[in-house]
UniProtKB/TrEMBL annotation:
Name of the protein in its database record: Golgi-associated plant pathogenesis-related protein 1
UniProt-annotated location(s): Golgi apparatus membrane
Residue ranges of every copy of the SCP domain listed in the record: 22-155
Keyword Membrane: yes
Gene name of this polypeptide: GLIPR2
Membrane topology: Lipid-anchor
Family assignment from sequence similarity: Belongs to the CRISP family.
Cellular-component GO terms for this entry: extracellular region; Golgi membrane
Annotated organism of origin: Gallus gallus (Chicken)
InterPro entries in UniProt: Allrgn_V5/Tpx1_CS, CAP_dom, CAP_sf, CRISP-related, SCP_GAPR1-like
Subunit structure comment from the entry: Homodimer. Interacts with CAV1.
Pfam families in alphabetical order: CAP
Alphabetized UniProt keyword annotations: Coiled coil, Golgi apparatus, Lipoprotein, Membrane, Myristate
Domain of life: Eukaryota
Length: 168
């Protein structure tokens, strides 16, 4: 039997891990609820993507500048970012991203800066995601979602194949 001494630091680390796991699962559930509406397969959380997303959320919180990572710019992963002046619940973040559906034209599919969060969320061929959240010194929070394989691929026909209209 292990007799690991429970210190305040261990307890704090454990509480942080549990809250970030709970947050990631909340964001995942919201994604999968929306994906179901569009008739696309659910995503699974990936530990490696979670680690990368968390690390990047911490970098964003430290710099307090919201900008996409070099990993996303190079196409290694898809990425959605969110910032709020308060501690944002996971469902609220996903709801804000998904609300871009109102600006998306299923009749004229393709990339637009006003719909990229939505299309990344429901991209049919994406299988896995990771989520990270970090607080800045001013109490604001930065959220990073990473997707694999990345969506928002602008090749001809890709939007038609991957961004399906919601089912009635």
């Amino acid at each position: 039997m292990s007799t690991r001494k429970l210190t305040a630091s261990n307890y704090y680390d454990s509480a942080i891990k549990n809250s970030s796991k709970q947050f990631a699962e909340e964001v995942l559930k919201a994604h999968n609820d929306y994906r179901k509406k569009h008739g696309v397969p659910p995503l699974k959380l990936c530990k490696k993507l979670n680690r990368g997303a968390q690390q990047y959320a911490e970098e964003l919180a430290a710099s307090r500048i919201l900008k996409h990572s070099s990993e996303s710019a190079s196409g290694k992963c898809g990425e959605n970012l969110a910032w709020a002046s308060y501690d944002q619940p996971g469902k609220d973040v996903a709801d804000r991203w998904y609300s871009e559906i109102k600006n998306y034209s299923f009749q004229n599919p393709g990339f637009s800066s006003g719909t990229g969060h939505f299309t990344a969320m429901v991209w049919k061929s994406t299988k896995k995601m990771g989520v990270g959240k970090a607080s800045a010194s001013d109490g604001s929070t930065f959220v990073v979602a990473r997707y694999d394989p990345a969506g928002n691929v602008v090749n001809p026909g890709y939007y038609e194949e991957n961004v399906l209209p919601p089912r009635k």
